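Human: Here is a favour to ask of a fellow structure person. Comparing notes only helps if you start from a blank page. I am asking you to supply a protein in sequence and C-alpha cell form. Write it directly below this note and I will take it from there.

Assistant:
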Amino acid sequence: MELIEKYFGSELTPLQRERFARLYDLYAEWNARINVVSRKDFESLYLKHVLHSLAIACVCRFDDGARICDVGTGGGFPAIPLAIMFPGAHFTAVDSIGKKITVVREVAAGLGLGNVEAVNARVETLPVRFDYIVSRAVTEMSELMRWVWSKVEHGRRGSLSNGLLVLKGGELAEELARAGKRFTVFDISRYFEEEFFATKKIIYLAK
C-alpha cells in the first residue's frame, strides 16, 4: 500500500484509499481458493499487479462515463485498480476462463465497486463497443488488434483519444513492426522508479 501512497496518495479520497488497502486481504482469500496470482509473486501484489495496472493512469485519465474493456483480465488486472482510481468510468473485465471471472466478480463486490462488470466470454463475441481497450500481456499486438480493433469507438473520453492501452514488457520492436501500425510507446520507468518497471512499457494506439 505504501507504493500506492507514494505515487497517488495526494489524489486519493478516503474511500479510494480504503479500497486499495483492502485489495491484499481480498486477493489473499480468493487466491487461496483459485490461483490467479502466482504464489511466489503474491507478496509483491502491490508492486507487480496493482501499481503496474495503475501505470495506465499515468498515461491516460479516463473521463466519467468512459467505457473501458479489460481483455484477458485474469484476476482483474488492470481493471480492478483502474476502477478504484476512476470510479466514474465503467469497466468490463473479460476473460474466457470462468474461475478467473469469479474472482474478479467477488473482489469487485467485496470492495463495493459498482463500476465493474465481469464477463466470462471471448471479447470477439461481445455485442458492444468501448472507448478504450486495456490489456496486460495477453497476446501479440497483431493478434490483439484482430480481436478488438472493431470494438473501439472513435472519439475521446479521456486525456488521450479512444484506443488501445496495453501493458507489455521486454523488447517489442519486432512485435510492433508485425502489427503494422504507428504505436506510441511509454516507458513506465518515466513514472515509477522501482527496478521492476525498468523494461515495462505501455503501448498506445489511437482509433
About this structure: The mean pLDDT is 95.
